[in-house]
Design a protein that fits this description.
Structural class: mainly alpha
Largest sheet: 2 strands, parallel
Shape: elongated
Number of strands: 2
Distance between the termini: 84 Å
Number of helices: 10
Strand content: under 5%
Amino acid sequence: MIRGWTVLSSKDGLKPLMQEGIEAIVFRTVGDQCSLWESLLPEEVRRLPEELARVDALLDDPAFVRPFVPFFDLRIGRPSTPMETYLRLMLLKFRYRLGYESLCREVSDSITWRMFCRIPLDVAVPHPRTLMKLTTRCGTAAVDGLNETLLAKAAEAKLLRNNRIRTDTTVVPANVAYPTDSGLLAKAVRRIAATSRRIRAAGGAVRTRVRDRSRAAGKRAHAVAAKLRSRAAVGREQATAAVLKSW
């Protein structure tokens, strides 16, 4: 078996993607061995920064490669970009907010980033279009798998407690409740009743009799809304009758 190539049998339950009209690419996990040029570099040059060194050690776990397996052919096709290289390139892209072209250009000019991405000095950096195609091919399913693996690793290392999850977002799916005239009127009746109670509690308007019509107004508003939801001619006539009877 060639080092860094994943070849599985049909017993694994994954159909070749060629049957679905997708180009067959053999799954490749790791890249080529370091060339002689890297071994001649001083230790100070080959040493990664602290942040990249920690991330590099974390991404060495084979669990971060498994989410990509279903998106590649298992036996035939041309070899893919090594997944260890693709993962590290994408991390640099999102970490430093780079485009595909600027990412490839920066990695080509940096020995440190080449060492981090496992790209030897005598090997070309993957083309920006190649990275785009890989991202489109794997889609959000691979990203979800990576997030689940990362959360599992963090929970295993006791870096977080996963019994509760707090979400802070400005985009939350919810039913839109548009204001209606009857609903606003019922709300105004409730506000008037609440204000009257506060005035009486403060000692004002003691002799004035105030009746709380909040429940009656709410029932009428619900009845009007139920009739207005009907778009038939009979429904519109009943809605008109209900409005005239209510007010």
